[in-house]
Structure formats: structure tokens, C-alpha cells
Design a protein that fits this description.
single chain; about 200 residues; mainly alpha; Arc Repressor Mutant, subunit A; Tetracycline Repressor, domain 2; 2 domains
């Protein structure tokens, strides 16, 4: 007798997060209720609160998912030993710009979510910036050790300054209506200035 195939029970958190993301991306954060998300999942609102105490917790989970996926892309750039530190830094910021621009262009309702996260979860956003700054530090440190970069400040301070200079390109829709091609030209010009400042004097 052939045993019946087993089916893995879906993770309730994943089910809730998927349903919430679909609804929020379509209707927006403010027009989405926990009851609607529960109905989309086929469960009671009370059951959802067992996994996500509030709607902002779901929003944070969505943001964390995007951040994790983005950081996987950045990690591939950083670990590529065939690339110079300058190229890694350039590709890191270009990838960040293109990823975020395309996601927000495709899902305009995310702007509302980003603004709400900034108001209600500043600690998480600070954590996210800190994680990104560590990636920048890693590239700068590699460049300093290889002799490509000459750091005149502490490594952490330099990484912070570079990150601040690139803030406009993190979520460009918050700052400008410029299109991706224009933003990329501007980003590459700013990178040139940064590389001029970081270049080791021969």
C-alpha cells in the first residue's frame, strides 16, 4: 500500500503576512484593518493577535522581510573577491537605489507604510540603518587594508558619513520625483566625489 502524501501545515505567521501584504499593497496601510486581514486568512481577528499584537507589528514584519532580501543581494556583492572595494561600494549603493526605487514604483501604497514606520517604529529604522552601516564599514575596511582607500577618520565615523551622504538614494520617493535614470547619474556623480576623498595618495 502506498502511504498517503503528507502535507506540511502552513505557518500561520506566513499566511497572515502574505494576506496582509496583499491587502496593504492594494488598499494602503490606513485602509486595512486586522479584521479584514483575518477574513482573508480564514481565521478570527483574535487568532491573528496571537501572532501579531498590532497592525504596526505586521508592517514591521513586512519591512524586515524586504530588508533581509535586500541584504542578501548586498552580501553577494561584498563577498565577490573579484571586485575591488571601490566597485563593491559603487554596486552596493546602485543596487540599493534600484531595488528600493522599483519596489516603491510598483507599489505606491508603500509610501504610506514607510512614513508610518518612521513615526511609530523609529527604533527599528535606527537598527536597520546600523545594519547597513556595518556593510559599508566592511567595504571601507577592505579598501583601507588593500591600500585603495585612505581613511582620515575612524572607520565607523567614515561609514556613517558615507551613509549620510547617500540618504537621498535610500528611499528616493520620500525626497524627490526624479526618475531612476536621473537618480543613478546623480548617485554616480556623488560616488565619484566620495572616491576622490577616499582615494589613497600615491
Amino acid at each position: 500500500m502506498t502511504p498517503a502524501p503528507t502535507t506540511e501545515k502552513a505557518d500561520p505567521r506566513e499566511t497572515i503576512l502574505k494576506a496582509a501584504a496583499e491587502r496593504i499593497l492594494h488598499y494602503g496601510y490606513n485602509k486595512t484593518t486586522m479584521s479584514e486581514i483575518a477574513a482573508d486568512c480564514g481565521m478570527s481577528a483574535g487568532n491573528i493577535y496571537r501572532f501579531y499584537p498590532s497592525k504596526i507589528d505586521i508592517a514591521e514584519a513586512m519591512t524586515r522581510r524586504f530588508t533581509a532580501e535586500s541584504h542578501a543581494v548586498y552580501a553577494n556583492i561584498i563577498r565577490d573577491s573579484a571586485k575591488s572595494p571601490s566597485r563593491k561600494l559603487s554596486e552596493f549603493f546602485i543596487a540599493r537605489l534600484e531595488l528600493t526605487f522599483r519596489v516603491f514604483e510598483k507599489n505606491p501604497k508603500l509610501m504610506e507604510l514607510a512614513e508610518i514606520m518612521g513615526r511609530e517604529r523609529p527604533d527599528y529604522l535606527a537598527e536597520e540603518r546600523a545594519q547597513e552601516r556595518l556593510l559599508i564599514e566592511k567595504i571601507l575596511d577592505e579598501g583601507a587594508k588593500s591600500g585603495d582607500f585612505a581613511l582620515t577618520e575612524d572607520l565607523a565615523i567614515t561609514a556613517d558619513l558615507v551613509q549620510c551622504a547617500m540618504m537621498k538614494f535610500r528611499i528616493p520617493h520620500l525626497w524627490t520625483t526624479e526618475q531612476l535614470n536621473s537618480l543613478r547619474i546623480e548617485l554616480e556623480g556623488l560616488l565619484h566625489l566620495i572616491f576622490t576623498g577616499l582615494s589613497a595618495r600615491k
